[in-house]
UniProtKB/TrEMBL annotation:
Residues 13-171 form the Metallo-beta-lactamase domain. Transmembrane segments: none annotated. It comes from the Bacteria. Thiolesterase that catalyzes the hydrolysis of S-D-lactoyl-glutathione to form glutathione and D-lactic acid. Its cofactor is Zn(2+). This is Hydroxyacylglutathione hydrolase.
Amino acid sequence: MTLVVDVFPARQDNFGYLAHDTATGRTAAIDAPEAAPIRQALAHRGWKLTDIFITHHHADHTEAIPELKSAFSAIVTGPRAEAGKIAGLDTLIDPGDVVELGESRFEVIATPGHTLGHVTYHERAGGHLFTGDALFSLGCGRMFEGEPGPMWEGLKRLRALPDATLVYCGHEYTAANARFALSVDPQNDALLTRAAEVTALREAGKPTIPATLGIEKAANPFLRADAPLFARLYGLEGADPAEVFAALRKAKDGF
């Protein structure tokens, strides 16, 4: 059993993903940002779309559901907590559920904050993590709907996964995220190395994704909000790490 992941651009700065279970041929689009690039990727690979897994309700992750569902009769799976905001869902899921794609199994992880019902899909056997807009490489999503405490707890759930896990996020924001990360953590060798890698990838016209979770744990400030240096940076020594996370997120919003 093997899961193959195809990565391609969509919209202005979204990533599109196809997850293909080689044992059965079932193929899922992870989110549905734009129909044409997904169709092109399917045709290039010779795969048929059977499923769509949705992380959250924002239009740039759901807009192509009607066209793809009509064209391929794909089964659309998404968070029960956001069912009222996502048209076309067939299967409702909750954190802790397991979603099957042929022989591949995806654990559903609660990652609220960007939206209240945001979920992440973790395929443990192959080490694939689809984070939507909860976690980006060197960054995290804006807190549009949630609160710092629950969002920080969600990021800690992701941080607890194995270092070798490959992170597939919703947008190509890595270069901008690197600039902010360097502004708050300029002496971090892992961050300096990752930032240089990101610059080289972007100059070569290549995506910065996937990134290993181990690198993110070392370099992404939003996964390190409990590191003492950030509490000192914002004068929050002794505060709950969720407060430090909130300060980091506020600083990034205004960066």
